[in-house]
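TASK: fixed-backbone design
INPUT:
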């Protein structure tokens, strides 16, 4: 506060009194200062400004009109901003111990890292050649940034988690270029989107499997911030991939159907094991695969795929995936037998004989057996006598074989160890 008595002239004193009247009360000013220091909203304001800039510039710049270089410049600026967020966040956590601010910076960086601004998708869908090069470059940068964050926070690079994140990032960043490559060879149809959603469902299932595999290898001294960031970096690419698929449906004018989402529902049925305890997850795991089978009947695309006599449809694919989900969730200890049996049955149905062929072969075998029995059946008294004679000797041999396999019983009242045989010439040997 300005003290009016310390000022030399009357004009300055009047200004100090006026300024003191309109300044904040000391208690309010202290509370505001405490809020700014504790919550530090400037990082969030910075992120909101960057999001607004990305949305505005992405709307103004059209890579389809030959402005791909401008998009690349915007991506370069965004990657520089991400690098500053990562370096500052890790420095605050590791060197200064300011956990809250560092964690906030890493949270803010995550949506930019996983292309929730759709800049990479926009560039990748403009040109296959340049888009693929740009996708690969951005993917490499994303992997480097992810590896640095996990390595610094966890004390080492968690290999299982990083491998899964790398797989998710590859699917996320290469998806637009993949659709552009398909577009050069024909129109994009609902079948292509169905298989893309199947990929997302498989990633969801792998998420739970990766957690089961890597759960025992996570270091126990890993900090809470490291665990939180690792889980965020594992789950956020899946949400971004779903958002990108929804955007591509709009770009290629292909409607989203329930059949498209059925693989995702089965993947969620498996992944829910990492989100809920077992008693709560069990009914969800029972119901969701059945729901996915029903959803696969709604506006299902024709897959035009077959194996032998089996014609693949989304309902059949959903039924097979639901069977695998039930085996994994409830009968994992018998998975080899159950999955092997199902594969054998499917191959037999697809490549083996038909039911008509099996019935015809059974009838032929039965007739052949009847004729052979009739040929060897005795018909005259001499044949019956010779057959009975052969049976007599045969059964005699079998009886002897059974008798010789039996152990001889011990004699009653005779103990060979207690009553040794007397030597010849001794008394009593007669």
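OUTPUT:
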């Amino acid at each position: 506060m300005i003290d009016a008595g310390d000022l030399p002239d009357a004009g300055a004193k009047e200004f100090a009194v006026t300024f003191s009247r309109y300044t904040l009360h000391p208690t309010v000013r202290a509370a505001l200062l405490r809020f700014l220091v504790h919550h530090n909203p400037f990082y969030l304001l910075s992120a909101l400004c960057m999001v607004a800039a990305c949305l505005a510039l992405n709307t103004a710049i059209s890579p389809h009109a030959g402005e791909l270089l401008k998009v690349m410049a915007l991506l370069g600026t965004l990657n520089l901003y991400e690098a500053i967020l990562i370096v500052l966040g890790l420095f605050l956590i590791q060197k200064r111990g300011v956990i809250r601010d560092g964690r906030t910076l890493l949270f803010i960086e995550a949506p930019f890292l996983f292309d929730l601004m759709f800049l990479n998708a926009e560039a990748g869908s403009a040109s296959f050649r340049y888009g693929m090069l740009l996708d690969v470059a951005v993917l490499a940068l994303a992997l480097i940034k992810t590896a640095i964050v996990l390595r610094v926070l966890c004390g080492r690079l968690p290999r299982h988690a990083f491998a899964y994140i790398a797989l998710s990032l590859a699917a996320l960043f290469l998806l637009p270029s993949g659709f552009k490559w398909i577009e050069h060879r024909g129109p994009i149809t609902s079948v292509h989107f169905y298989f893309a959603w199947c990929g997302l469902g498989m990633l969801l299932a792998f998420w739970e499997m990766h957690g089961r595999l890597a759960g025992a290898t996570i270091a126990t001294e890993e900090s809470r911030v490291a665990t939180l960031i690792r889980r965020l970096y594992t789950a956020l690419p899946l949400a971004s991939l779903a958002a990108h698929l929804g955007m591509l449906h709009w770009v290629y004018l292909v409607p989203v159907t329930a059949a498209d989402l059925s693989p995702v529902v089965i993947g969620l049925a498996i992944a829910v094991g990492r989100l809920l305890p077992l008693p709560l997850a069990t009914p969800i795991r029972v119901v969701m695969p059945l729901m996915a089978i029903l959803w696969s009947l709604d506006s299902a695309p024709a897959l035009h795929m077959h194996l032998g006599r089996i014609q693949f449809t989304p309902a059949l694919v959903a039924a097979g995936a639901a069977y695998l989900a039930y085996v994994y969730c409830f009968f994992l200890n018998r998975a080899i037998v159950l999955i092997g049996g199902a594969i054998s049955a499917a191959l037999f149905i697809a490549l083996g004989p038909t039911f008509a062929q099996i019935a015809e072969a059974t009838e032929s075998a039965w007739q052949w057996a009847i004729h052979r029995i009739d040929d060897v059946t005795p018909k005259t008294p001499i044949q019956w006598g010779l057959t009975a004679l052969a049976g007599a000797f045969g059964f005699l041999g079998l009886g002897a074989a059974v008798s010789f396999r039996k152990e001889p019983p011990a004699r009653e009242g005779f103990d060979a160890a207690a009553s040794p045989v007397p030597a010849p010439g001794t008394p009593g040997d007669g």
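COMMENT: The two ends are 140 Å apart (CA to CA).
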